[in-house]
Design brief:
By secondary structure, the chain is α+β, with helices and mostly antiparallel strands. It folds into three domains: 87 residues, DNA polymerase, domain 1, CATH 1.10.150; 49 residues, DNA polymerase, domain 1 (Orthogonal Bundle), CATH 1.10.150.20; 185 residues, 2-Layer Sandwich (Beta Polymerase, domain 2). Helices cover 41% and strands 15% of the residues. The protein is built from 16 helices and twelve strands. The strands form four sheets. The protein has a five-stranded mixed β-sheet, with helices on both faces. Helix 5 packs across helix 6. The relative contact order is 0.11. It binds 8-OXO-2'-deoxyguanosine-5'-triphosphate and manganese (II) ion (2 copies). The site of one manganese (II) ion has 4 residues, from loops.
Length: 397
């Protein structure tokens, strides 16, 4: 045990947007435990508690080395009594009773499975649980009416719950690029979300599209979606027009009806050949040398060389989010959609509480000066907010 005099004491600022959080987390056991409690709180309509656990986990993610004793936590922000108790249990006993009980609870397990279906939120999952539906099988047998999103979510459940790899994200990026370029040459496509932060896997792939000439992006989303649909790349899509309105005076004044901020939640059908050269495909080839081919009755030869098990689908479903923003709002959209979710929340809290400003994915408003602050880069927005610039790879709070 480290004695008190020797213990390293860390100095960490309290807002996540004031500090750098890289992906190399030295306290995964502790942060996994706190994240699980956060998730359980969020699934139980206790958002306040959820945020408290998320903030506590984020502080531990920012530490330069593993925590070995409670004395090291002295003076750290955002660690409430409840989080400290969980940390203490893990450091002293190797596990937290509360975390283990939560993990094993039927309610938590059912909520995880059901909200794991794309299109199913906490409210729907709770209603189903009240009707004794705890599993996918029970849901299917119940004859519950599912909306289009939920039907697609259930149909592609396994694919959508398997993490998306970087190689798959790159392959999707190529398809999105081809789609956008064929309907609006000159448009710009940027990866946002977790992959922009350097994550190696994600639950989806997120893209932001803009055009250097203001206004040229109007009406882009339906055209991109049509192109993707015509090429057979979409298993599901829902395009929503954002209610955000803009005028010449400032992005929040509804002087014009022009709606310029659109997003599309989709499920892509990614052909396996698009990610060829990845480990997955290599393994498949290695395990099936040509001379064993005829012996395996459930394998078929395709195109003379390539072999696949009969009935093996040659594609996989991947969640993809597309956002279109006018160039005048691009920096705000980029900052707002890069995440992490906690980093975004902390940026808005910092803006409101410390600077009397309102930050959104469209604009930054200064309440004291009663005006919008323009920005063409993320760096400028951090500067307006009086914060040191934090690059995407260090926004993994
Ligand atoms: P993951 O997919 O790898 O699991 O992580 P992620 O990429 O960080 O999460 P995400 O759920 O794909 O969300 C990406 C970012 O987009 C995140 O910062 C939150 C933000 N975001 C939404 N929905 C909305 C929204 O409706 N409006 C705005 N402005 N931002 C949103 O997810
Ligand atoms: Mn994402
Ligand atoms: Mn997303």
């Amino acid at each position: 045990q480290v004695n008190e005099a020797e213990a390293v004491v860390f100095n960490i600022p309290s807002y996540a947007c004031q500090r750098r959080t890289a992906l190399d987390n030295h306290n995964t056991v502790l942060t996994d435990a706190l994240s699980l409690l956060a998730e359980n709180a969020e699934l139980s309509d206790e958002d306040g508690r959820g945020v408290a656990f998320r903030r506590a986990a984020a502080v531990l993610k920012a530490l330069p080395e593993p925590v070995t004793g409670m004395t090291q936590l002295r003076g750290l922000p955002c660690l409430g009594g409840h989080s400290l108790r969980v940390i203490k249990d893990i450091l002293e006993d190797g596990a937290s009773g509360e975390v283990e009980l939560t993990k094993e609870s039927e309610r938590f397990k059912a909520l995880k499975v059901l909200t794991g279906i794309f299109g199913v939120g906490v409210k729907t999952a709770e209603r189903w649980i009240r009707e004794q539906i705890h599993s996918l099988q029970q849901l299917q047998d119940s004859g519950q009416t599912l909306n289009r999103a939920q039907q697609a979510g259930l149909e592609h459940y396994d694919d959508l719950n398997q993490p998306v790899t970087k190689a798959e994200a790159d392959a999707i990026g190529e398809i999105v690029r081809e789609a956008v370029m064929s309907v609006l040459p000159g448009a710009q496509i940027t990866v946002i979300g977790g992959f922009r932060r350097g994550k190696l896997t994600g639950h989806d792939v997120d893209f932001l599209v803009t055009h250097p000439e203001e206004g040229r992006e109007v009406g882009l989303m339906p055209k991109v979606v049509s192109w993707l649909e015509s090429q057979g790349f979409l298993l599901y899509q829902k395009t929503t027009r954002n209610s955000y309105l803009e005028s010449k005076d400032g992005p929040a004044r509804p002087a014009s009806n022009m709606d310029r901020f659109e997003r599309c939640f989709s499920i892509f059908k990614l052909p396996e050949e698009e990610t060829r050269g990845t480990k997955q495909t290599e393994t498949l080839t290695e395990n099936t040398p040509e001379d064993t081919c005829s012996l395996a009755a459930n394998w078929q030869v395709k195109g003379g060389e390539q072999m696949k098990p009969a009935g093996h689908k040659a594609w996989r479903a991947v969640r993809v989010d597309l956002v279109v923003s006018p160039i005048s709002q691009f920096a705000f959209a980029l900052l707002g959609w890069t995440g992490s979710k906690l980093f975004e929340r902390e940026l808005r809290r910092w803006a409101g509480h410390e600077k009397a400003m309102s930050l959104s994915s469209h604009a930054l408003y200064d309440n004291k000066q009663s005006r919008y602050l323009r920005a063409t880069s993320e760096e400028e927005i951090f500067a307006h907010l009086g914060l040191d610039y934090i690059p995407p790879s260090e926004r993994n709070a």
